[in-house]
Amino acid sequence: MVSIHFHDRTNLGGGLGAFLLLGTLFLLGVSSCDPLAGTGPGTAPDPKTFIHVDAATRTAVVTLIAGHPATDIQFNYDGYGNGALVLTVPTEWQVTIQCVNHGTVPNSCAVVADGEATAPVQPGWSTSNPRRGLDPGQSASFTFTPTATGGYRIASLVDGNEASGMWADLEVGAGGIPNLIAQ
Fold first, then answer.
1. Rounded to whole angstroms, what are the CA distances from 164 to 54, 71, 75, 76, 81?
2. Other Cβ atoms closer than 10 A to 168
3. What is the pLDDT of residues 135-175, one digit of tens each?
4. Do 101 and 178 reside in the same domain of the chain?
5. DSSP reduced 3-state for 141
6. pLDDT by residue (tens digit) across 40-66?
7. Which 3 state secondary structure label does DSSP give 164?
8. 107 and 127 in contact (C-beta within 8 Å)?
9. Residue 13 φ then ψ, to 5°
10. Backbone dihedral angles phi then psi of residue 18, each to the nearest 5 degrees
């Protein structure tokens, strides 16, 4: 036979203890930050919010947030990694890339030929010192004007970042207007 006092204590202690344990686990899960696996749970935002196009002046400004906090992986631009973010630009348009590092490790932005590249396609087509990168919380910008059509990447040239998915697809075409989409 179980005493009433023991039963009450078990319910109170077990219920309160379980509540506190679950609450603690929930808070740890929500606030945890794994620099390799991600900076937070969530869905990547609409890429169109990161591009501004002025057709009259043939210019575009693109903001690339390295380590966007809304996604499950840190090595991303605007929440998209491994080339899922696609920037399409016509030749002869002036494009400014604003690179913002929200990650927990250094990141950079550079226009490169492919996944094997260790330097920008042209001098100045990257944040300064792209192999060193921007420290967390820093930002920088650069401007480029493509003159030939082709496929390129915008990648972080900090060792290991591009291999971890830190790159966006850059397609330079003969016409149209700049566009930023997710695939």
1. 33, 14, 6, 9, 8
2. 27
3. 999 999 999 999 999 999 999 999 999 999 999 999 999 99
4. yes
5. strand
6. 566 779 999 999 999 999 999 999 999
7. helix
8. no
9. -65, -45
10. -65, -40
- Residue 71: closest CA among 40, 114, 94: 40
| Residue ranges making up the domain that contains 14 | 1-32
> What is the C-alpha separation between 8 and 69, in angstroms, rounded?
45
Same domain, 77 and 103: yes
Compute φ and ψ for 64, nearest 5 degrees. -115, 110
Domain check: are 19 and 58 in the same one? no
Question: How far, in Å, CA of 68 to CA of 72, rounded?
Answer: 9
Answer yes or no: is 143 within a domain. Answer: yes
Burial of 85 (0-12, 13-18, 19+ CB in 10 A): buried
Residue the block writes with tokens 């080339």: 83
Cα angle at 103 between 153 and 141, to 5 degrees?
Answer: 55
